[in-house]
Task: inverse folding
């Protein structure tokens, strides 16, 4: 049976990846590692998947080496990262070093083992950085101009991965993943935070209310996490070594439209007020990706509409918080 | 008086930088740091320059912080690097981490000090990596495609420097420096190694001989180190913050031409034989830079002809080894 090691197992995407395997009856032995315990029951898929979890800090290479040699994976889904852009502004050195070090530790152990392991390394649309309207939609061959320490770390990881793939023969496939959405997403993220506040208006039996926002004129490219994990599975199995793939919908949504969509689903009137504290400096006006490469090579395209994603997120919010 | 801190002080370029200051009567207080002692007499310029040296490993941030606060430089010439491409192939993790860590340590200390310090960060033409004929001559806006762990580290350093300059206001200017030549260059480098072996033929009173080489069909862009340090001085004083400048001659020389030039200066007949051990894998056929940016903005152009550089290197070789 195939053996899959998932780093950053306890996060939002790790759980959906397990669900994807289970729903599609893809039998696998899975070892999850993360510095924090997962908050979900990973044993629930036991008729399909043999899942174990080991608490592990990837900054500790000796611990990872031990786990790697005990488990002997033939696939690694590398979700782990220190992904906060805000943290990276306050602690640029730590953000850069930690992100690149966990990647270097992981790949070093694979390289020294001389085992054949396919790795999917998850990158970010943040890597594109400072882009102009002419660059939209963003293509994988676009020159990157990262503008945060976090984004520089991700670019460095990608450049190292390409060298490791081309010169050391490591089987690494790379993504630049755009915004994800889906039920259970942390409410610090933009869409769940809108839903939370609009749902609170609804739950108070008010017909209208005001929410404070950052710049809602910005446009982003959102993909449902359930589509994202399907892309990751296809890339892990069949992506080309050393190649970068955008994982995105190819469609831009202005945040103000997102608010209208949520408000109309909940049948409340929402006014917005800009709070300068929520406006990020140097934020790009428009980020939309092009997904032709993954479509053409792997036949992937998003299946879940934005409306469906939002509906599911709203249902989840009500089911879990206003039962 | 201006205070200049030079990292990587003990190397080939550090000594020429001091000579440049002394020859041009640019009075400065200079503190050199390096993990190895300089092999030259840095007190010889004492009528112009107040020079001190402190042995220091930049990987130790506490030591550097102490030295920085004691000296309070207003300029830093950051020459230090782990620059061996060959080492980086054998120890990719160490090469990457050490190169980026010394840069992060240096800039962190400057940033936390809140002092106004102008920094010149030296990069490499290796950063361009995999280029095609159509990209020649290489321009600063060219997309980089680094192909060695060393080159990735240098690209990462540059990307971090740009973020630090644009978002934290650090006064960092950047170079991508092409091949240097000049008297006293280490004989592991290509041109001094040719001179060494052709000079040995000459010194044996032979009229002809054969030397083993790598691929002498490759074309490189060589600048005399005395021109290079003048570029560094101008950039340190007047380069624009966050900007990258090629430091190069703009002229390509095939290594076979270089051999002919040395042979004709020494009046010996040289045949060459390729030794596969000397041929580097994945080496670019042609590397030539464009120097319009530094010419236009700072009025710099090389003054020392290739013929003069080679003549001086040959004279140095004979004066020091065959007196």
Result:
């Amino acid at each position: 049976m195939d053996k899959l090691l998932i780093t950053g197992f306890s996060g939002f995407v790790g759980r959906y990846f397990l669900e994807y395997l289970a729903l599609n009856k893809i039998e696998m032995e899975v070892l999850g590692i993360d510095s924090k315990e997962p908050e979900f029951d990973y044993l629930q898929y036991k008729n399909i998947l043999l899942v174990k979890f080991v608490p592990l800090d990837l900054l500790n290479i000796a611990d990872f080496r031990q786990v790697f040699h005990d488990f002997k994976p033939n696939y690694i889904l590398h979700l782990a990262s220190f992904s906060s852009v805000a943290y990276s502004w306050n602690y640029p050195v730590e953000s850069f070093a930690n992100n690149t070090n966990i990647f270097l530790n992981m790949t070093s152990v694979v390289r020294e083992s001389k085992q054949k392991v396919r790795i999917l390394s998850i990158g970010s649309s943040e890597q594109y950085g400072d882009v102009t309207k002419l660059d939209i939609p963003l293509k994988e061959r676009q020159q990157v101009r990262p503008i945060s320490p976090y984004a520089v770390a991700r670019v460095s990881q990608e450049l190292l991965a390409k060298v490791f793939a081309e010169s050391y023969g490591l089987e690494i496939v790379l993504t630049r993943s755009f915004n994800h959405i889906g039920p259970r997403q942390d409410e610090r993220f933009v869409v769940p935070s809108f839903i939370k506040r609009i749902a609170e208006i609804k739950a108070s039996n008010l017909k209208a209310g005001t929410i404070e926002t950052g710049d809602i004129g910005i446009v982003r490219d959102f993909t449902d996490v359930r589509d994202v994990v399907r892309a990751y599975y296809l890339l892990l199995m069949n992506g080309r070594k050393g190649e970068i793939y955008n994982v995105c919908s190819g469609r831009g949504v202005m945040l103000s439209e997102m608010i209208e969509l949520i408000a109309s689903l909940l049948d409340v009137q929402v006014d917005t007020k800009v709070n300068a504290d929520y406006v990020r400096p140097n934020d790009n006006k428009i980020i939309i990706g092009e997904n032709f490469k993954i479509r053409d090579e792997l036949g992937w395209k998003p299946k879940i509409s934005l409306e469906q994603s939002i509906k599911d997120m709203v249902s989840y919010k009500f089911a879990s918080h206003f039962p």
In short: The longest strand of chain A covers residues 28-34.
